[in-house]
Amino acid sequence: MSPQTILVHLDGRARGAETLKVANRIARSFNSHVATVFATQPPLLVASAMDPAAAVVLEYQAEAEIALQSEAKAQVAAAESLSGLAIEWRVTSFNTIGNVAMHARHADLLVMSQEDPAWSPGTGPSILAGVIISAGRPVLLVPYAGTFKTCGDSVLIAWNAGRESARAAADALPFLKAAREVHVVSFNPESESDWGEIPGADIGLWLARHDVRVTVHERRSRDVDVGNQLLSLAADLGTDLVVMGAYGHSRAYEMVLGGVTRTILGSMTVPVLMSH
Length: 276
Hints:
Elements: E1 5-10, H1 16-30, E2 33-38, H2 54-83, E3 87-91, H3 96-104, E4 109-113, H4 124-135, E5 139-142, E6 154-158, H5 163-171, H6 173-178, E7 181-187, H7 192-195, H8 201-209, E8 214-219, H9 226-237, E9 241-245, H10 251-257, H11 260-267, E10 272-275
Parallel strand pairs: 1-2, 1-4, 2-3, 4-5, 6-7, 6-9, 7-8, 9-10
Antiparallel strand pairs: 5-10
């Protein structure tokens, strides 16, 4: 079933304009309704009620919120003018992760911008991670750099035969069925009980039965981490969308030891659809 409601998270940063363009192109191809939700992560400024500076801090936070909301509204107005689509506007405050996830549960697809470390050092991935884990919906992430005139013409699926990977492939079916080409890649497949007799063959057959034009790849390498291998293959294939499961390991495991999700959140070069 194609997405009928696409939700776009906006925070007033400049990247929201490109994220809206990507969402609108997808909406046009699927004849979807587009809604936006404005939500910011409050700055970590703490002031005691007895501190003379408390009122100044609170005033600064309020002014910053108003400025960001005004910029997000301007981005929506520009996107409506450019696309001819009517875009729904929503606002939420506090508990950014929980509120964005709640709105996402009433949509088919959530579109968000990758966090730019230049303005959000060390905090961006945690916001994205929280929403991806708790939303219960697929999340399409748009890189913080570059422009993307297509999204879903050539798709690369990262397949590891796990629960999250299967969920992502199913969530992405509307994109896969509409794609000109779809590639499935398995990295370092091991146990037959998990992968089947021929790694990747079963998922390839499942996709083919959905009339998806699919090519199956297998990669074996212990020298380069899987996240960077995936990005390299996406570049080699000219992919404009990567589909993958998110946080097959626990989030704590990935934050401490690293993982594919963490690598992609920090280094993505094309839009990435993630499901948990």
